[in-house]
What we know:
The protein is α/β, with parallel strands linked by helices. It folds into three domains: 7-90, CATH 2.40.50.140; 96-256, 3-Layer(aba) Sandwich (Rossmann fold); 269-356, Probable gtpase engc, domain 3 (Ribonucleotide Reductase Protein R1, domain 1), CATH 1.10.40. The protein contains eleven helices and 13 strands. A six-stranded mixed sheet has the order 10-9-8-11-13-12. Strands 1-2-3-5-4 form a five-stranded mixed barrel. A hairpin with a 2-residue loop joins strand 1 and strand 2. The longest helix is centred in the C-terminal third of the chain and has 25 residues, at 332-356. It is globular and about 70 Å long. 34% of the residues are buried.
Amino acid sequence: MQKEIKIEDLxxxxxxxxxxxxxxxxxxxxARVTVEHRGAYKVKNTNGEFLAKITGKQMFDxxxxxxxxxxxxxxAITELNRExxxxxxxxxxxxxxxxxxxxxxxxxxxxxxxxxxxIVESVDRDYNLNRFERYxxxxxxxxxxxxxxxxxxxxxxxxxxxxxxxxxKNRFNDxxxxxxxxxxxxxxxxxxxxxxKRKTYCFLGSSGVGKSxxxxxxxxxxIIKTENISISTNRGKHTTTNREIYFLxxxxxxxxxxxxxxxxxxDTNMGIDNLFDExxxxxRECKFIDCTHIHEPGCGVLSALKSGELNKDxxxxxxxxxxEAEFYNMSEMERNEKDYKFGKFIKKAKKQLKELx
Length: 357
């Protein structure tokens, strides 16, 4: 006999209920988006699971991809039968994690209404402090707490692991770190205990770092298909093709995501400033209010960099992330003009090199 579930077991709380009342959606059922397919969604509530589509009005009213439902959203639906439904409205989001798509200036909503984002990196091939920082920036900007899972710790020595831990703690002094291995099961109890009933956790990281394998271990069985790392390329394979919500036996809610090769910045200036609060504090000492911290005299950030007070890698990553966020926030005309000027600069530089040769 299947256990009866309550709407709260799916992550529903007073935030969503108050917004449902404000929007006067009493005539509709409320459900959570668990999977996003092309042109359709799987949604779940206390009555079961439904394959749902949005209305033509929603498509017409949408001004961007963010206006469409995403995995993790709460939506107002009409249940047509036991298997199908229509989505009428997306309830306001408590949190959101999004990125700029690779080589495009489009927003990709990764998931919504998340409490904790697990940033998963493997110690053998994927470990990168700057990548952690990128994920932290988009998590902070969306109001989500980031935590680190350092996976595949069975593949390195204790000395190397201690070195990596020291580097992480030196760069990020207030982030939770879980050390895990799906081969030895080390750290899995700690991960299970970290996940709280009715809270939502999103697993983020590159292909092949073990996100799906970790979720399978949490379930105690293989519910998600996984594949080994490609030996010829040493790269992970995109086994997970859709974002999907899974409900653990302990009441925790987890979202598996396809591997991401790049994490492009959107309008995440606030998230970046919060993440790099050390630099934000140093910037108060700058001579100019609009200081870019790159070349200006009397810059408090550059002064700290020169004295060794500020980590060089941290500063470099901060500048790169700020530039990406600034580029995203430009109008299309401004971006095209900047691209045009940059193209002219490259052309001129190549000509000068040719003349010198």
